[in-house]
Amino acid sequence: MTRTRTAGGPYVREARADRLPSEGWPFTIPAVRALADGDVLDLDHPVTLLCGDNGSGKSTLVEAIAAAAGLNVEGGSRNFQFSTRTTEVPLAEHLRLVRHPGRRPRDGFFLRAESYFNVASEIERLDQEPDTPPLLPTYGGVSPHERSHGESFLDLVTHRFGTDGLYVLDEPEAALSVTGCMALLAQVMELSEGGSQFIIATHSPILLAIPGAVIHQLDEHGFERLEYDDTLPVVTMRAFLADPARFVHRLRAD
Ligand SMILES: Nc1ncnc2c1ncn2[C@@H]1O[C@H](COP(=O)(O)OP(=O)(O)O)[C@@H](O)[C@H]1O
Ligand SMILES: [Mg+2]
């Protein structure tokens, strides 16, 4: 199959860190320490995926990347600057995104599973304001508050996202069924082939299978690039599905 790209490639090539403090959260997380030691997080691909166990630092990294890219760290686009809590992103100040000169995304969105509710409220609030074009049609026409969490996620990606954007997603599978994950995979493929860049933290063996995506796995040593078959979610899920009863029995024995 020949893939045609209408645009020139990713916007952000890599993330590096400058002068990181050595103490305190989040600077003690191994993946962040790796950046402090000079490791570079390679993002120079239409789709970069970050996986790793709970607590390995995926959200910390994607949040800092989103903040360094100028996206609202509570979720949303550049235009959404609402804040419901004091959002501090200490890592963002030290994170340096190396961009491709001359390439700027026209759109951007940071999707955090846990705060999409607030994004939905912000859409409704902005649509109450007079003299501004309605936002809701670009989100599929139905308020995310009136859709299931998973449905509104897919609305967002299908109707609001485009082919000239930088999209940072943190565990987008949280609200999605297996077929929902497959629909998201197809949409990410289409938009990234059209020129958008995606950086996604995920545990989903389905999303990890996005063709051509580069996977970095975070662990107690830092982060490393792995092939699909060697990643923790895929290895563990395969072992589980091969014989669920035995797996559960072993878990209980442990
Ligand atoms: N605001 C915070 N203050 C202190 N520690 C935090 C904070 N947020 C997350 N952590 C800790 O940082 C580590 C990495 O968290 P996180 O990036 O959310 O991991 P992941 O997304 O990979 O599950 C965890 O040990 C977590 O408990
Ligand atoms: Mg997380």
Automatic annotation (TrEMBL):
Pfam families referenced in this protein's UniProt entry, alphabetically: AAA_21, AAA_23
Record flagged with keyword Membrane: yes
Keyword Ion transport: yes
Membrane topology note: Peripheral membrane protein
Signal peptide: none
Main location: membrane
GO MF, one annotated term: ATP hydrolysis activity
Top-level taxonomic group: Bacteria
Record localization: Cell membrane
Domain named AAA+ ATPase: residues: 44-232
GO process terms (BP): double-strand break repair; iron ion transport
InterPro entries: AAA+_ATPase, ATPase_AAA_core, P-loop_NTPase, Rad50/SbcC_AAA, Siderophore_ABC-ATPase
Cellular component terms (Gene Ontology): plasma membrane
Listed transmembrane segments: none
Keywords of the record: Cell membrane, Ion transport, Iron, Iron transport, Membrane, Transport
Protein name, UniProt field: Putative ATPase
Originating organism: Promicromonospora sukumoe
